[in-house]
Amino acid sequence: MTMLTKRIIPCLDIKDGRTVKGTNFVELRDAGDPVELAMRYCAEGADELVFLDITATTEKRKTLAQLVRNIATHINIPFTVGGGISSVDDVRVLLDNGADKISLNTSAVQNPSLINQLSSQFGSQCVVVAIDVKRIHGVWTVVTHGGRTPTTLPAIAWAQQVCDAGAGEILLTSMEHDGTKSGFALDITREIAAAVPVPVIASGGGGIMQHFEEVFQDARADAALAASIFHFREIGIGELKKYLHQQQIPVRLI
Amino acid sequence: MKTPTDQTGNKEESPEVVIIRYNAGNIRSVLFALERIGIEAVVTDDPDIIRGAGKVIFPGVGEASTAMQYLKERELDKLIVSLTQPVLGICLGMQLLCSHSEENDTPCIGVFDNVTVQRFNPAQASLKVPQIGWNTISGLRSSLFQEVPENSYCYFVHGYYAGIRPYTIATTEYGHCYSSALQKNNFYGVQFHPEKSALAGEQILKNFLAISL
Questions:
Q1: Residue A177 φ/ψ, nearest 5 degrees
Q2: A75 is in which domain, residue-wise?
């Protein structure tokens, strides 16, 4: 039986051209050269990569564009670039330099029409909307600015709204789970995966291989993203995919 | 990059590999993929350069009617159908080589005659539309797939598909079986993105570039 596979997506947090990974987005550790790491992930069987520029500022744009160009000439799988993207021009520069998709986060909340503009200009396939969520008074709510700023947007309604505006995929991160290695937020992932027509990438909390099995099997995520466990080789991408295959979850084995 | 005309009226040689420039997305990804396998290509919408190239790649992602309108305004549709060298349509490029697309009821270029591009039915088996991700290609029958193992994984991003036809040279399943590649004479079309399909994709690009008619 052949079918569409579940994707494993390593995320590389980029600061000043280097890979870093924090716990709850605060404490940073250096995990190396992004292009080298990206190539290692490709060789191990990663299905896609996400590069998140966590210190993106206007003056850093040029450096990021060069890094994207460098990545594009070295890796042969799709990759997404996110972090500080707030205009059509920002996106054009990244796509021109070889990014396959871009991801919006805070800027989508501040200016939802940006999603429409980008999807009509470049196509939905390259517009990933990252949604960071947290339970506030028991309700899963959208938070922005790396989790520091709460909004009044309920997570599910926002997910549906971004899809109506033309988002091609949703990258869902539970800020309560991110960095904890205690498992993905299964309930909200399941609810959003059922509520939207586009693929949902689950992020935040993956610590052991069973967590990935749960998020695919129980929460119906289409893809799962993680960073530090791959960076520091706590879980190998190859062994993770072999494990998932043994659990009857369709994955691309190489 | 324009090819200047010399005084005798003969044009300088066209490049070996040309990528057709039009209003679709992700065109440069193909350029970078070729660069990775050591091939220099030129992105152009100049009819003379396209006509003179050894190989023509017609890539792209986007919406069919907007793309067709752009191609028609520049008469690139007529040019493409008249090409005699190997041509490779990728994703939207493949769909535009078909006769018709349900996407905004768009008449297409029609190289693959009697092939209508249809929309995946999302109601079926709780499919997400578009299909995004890695799926297998099977029933491989073309030199395009030389040294590409049966059931290799390739990367797909599409909401519309071409059914199984006599031109089918590879199939994929998403809810049902459909054509993941088509071929008629010198025209090849792949629904997936070889430029993003790891080693299998690189082999397919190399095979296309090695085709001699």
A1: -95, -25
A2: 7-246
B109-134 burial by CB neighbour count: b if 16+ within 10 A, else e?
Answer: bebbeebebeebeeeeeebbbbbbbb
Please tell me the distance from the alpha carbon of residue A125 to that of residue B144, in angstroms, as a whole number: 26
* Nearest chain B residue to A124, by CA: B62
Residues in a beta bridge with B154: B135
Q: What is the ipTM of this complex?
A: 0.91
Greatest C-alpha distance within chain B: 64
Q: What topology does CATH give the domain B17-210?
A: Rossmann fold (3.40.50)
User: What chain B residue is nearest to A79 in terms of C-alpha separation?
Assistant: B196
Whether A242 is in a domain gets the answer yes
Number of domains observed in the structure of chain A: 1
**CATH number of the CATH domain containing A12:** 3.20.20.70
CB distance A223–B133 less than 8 Å? yes
- How confident is the model over A52-69, as pLDDT tens digits? 998 755 566 678 899 999
> Could you tell me the two tokens for A146?
């790396």
HEC secondary structure over chain B: CCCCECCCCCECCCCCEEEECCCCECHHHHHHHHHHCCCCCEEECCHHHHHHCCEEEECCECCHHHHHHHHHHCCHHHHHHCCCCCEEEECHHHHHCEEEECCCCEECCCCEEEEEEEECCCCHHHCCCCEEEEEEEECCCCHHHCCCCCCEEEEEEECEEECCCCCEEEEEEECEEEEEEEEECCEEEECCCHHHCHHHHHHHHHHHHHCCC
Would the CB atoms of A95 and B28 count as touching at under 8 Å?
yes
Name the residue among B178, B179, B131 with its Cα closest to residue B155.
B131
The answer to whether residue A252 is domain-embedded is no
pTM of the model: 0.92
Q: Which of A9-23, A231-245, B178-192 has the lowest mean pLDDT?
A: A9-23
The active-site residue out of A47, A53, A90, A132 is A132
| pLDDT tens per residue across span B82-100 | 999 999 999 999 999 999 9
Query: Residue A53 catalytic?
Result: no
Q: Which of B25, B129, B135 sits opposite A123 (nearest CB)?
A: B25
Query: Where along chain B do its domains lie?
Result: 17-210
Whether the ω angle into residue B130 lies within 30 degrees of 0, i.e. cis, is yes
Which of B32, B130, B134 has its CB closest to that of A73?
B32
Q: Quick check: B132 and A98 CB within 8 A?
A: no
